[in-house]
Design brief:
This protein is an alpha/beta fold. The protein contains 10 helices and 5 strands; from the N terminus they run βααααββααααββαα. The chain is globular.
Length: 217
């Protein structure tokens, strides 16, 4: 297994952002702010949770799913995405802050790609939304570099032994989007239906695309 792991890279974030730990300084500050705002009646915790959930699991990942579905269904777009992901993604209307320089990583039967940010939580917001809590956690950031197969097993993914796993370390300059393997039997599906097979975790590399079963053409 090979790893792209550059300890010397620069992570450029908002001035107040700190490296994330499960209960690091930023978590404590955010929770304290949430408590004050809810106690004063400025926001409702349920509404705040719903907003975060929407951006974390629906709006952002839906964008990435559209990119992957287009790549699966259009060979020319797939080649463009692999060569210049930033432009190819922008052509579908997705781009902006945290997605200024994108690189697409196409999974193959011989190589599976996984993404991490070892120092903090660099993440491609325009195509994946907000990063999940586990992506920002110290255990994931440390372990995925040392034991990617073990991490995949924790997510319920078991790859063939002959499939190499490559871990890519995001930076402020470059964010990654994994293009998962297209599910077997999806050849007749429309682009909209293909997008339904794409999961957030499959675009990070900690999961696979959904099987075709249950998705109508």
């Amino acid at each position: 297994m090979s790893h792209d792991h550059d300890h010397g890279h620069r992570h450029d974030h908002d001035p107040d952002e700190q490296p994330d730990n499960s209960l690091g300084p930023m978590d404590v500050r955010v929770r304290a702010l949430e408590t004050v705002l809810t106690q004063k009646g400025y926001v409702e915790r349920a509404a705040l949770d719903a907003l975060v959930e929407t951006y974390e699991t629906r709006i952002g990942p839906r964008n990435g799913a559209r990119v992957v579905a287009r790549a699966w269904s259009d060979p020319a777009y797939f080649e463009w995405l692999c060569q210049d992901a930033t432009s190819a993604i922008a052509a579908l209307g997705y781009g902006g802050r945290q997605g200024e320089q994108m690189v697409a990583l196409a999974n193959t039967p011989k190589q599976h790609n996984m993404v991490v940010c070892t120092l903090c939580s660099c993440y491609p917001w325009p195509v994946l939304g907000l990063p999940p809590t586990w992506y920002k956690s110290a255990p994931y950031r440390a372990r995925v570099v040392r034991d990617p197969r073990g991490v995949l097993a924790d997510f319920g993914v078991e790859l063939p032994k002959e499939t190499a796993i490559r871990v890519w370390d995001s930076t402020a300059e470059v964010r990654y989007l994994v293009i998962p393997l297209r599910p077997i039997g999806s050849e007749s599906l429309s682009e909209d239906r293909l997008a339904e097979l794409v999961t957030r975790d499959s675009m990070i590399g900690t999961g696979l695309a959904r099987p075709v079963a249950g998705v109508q053409a």
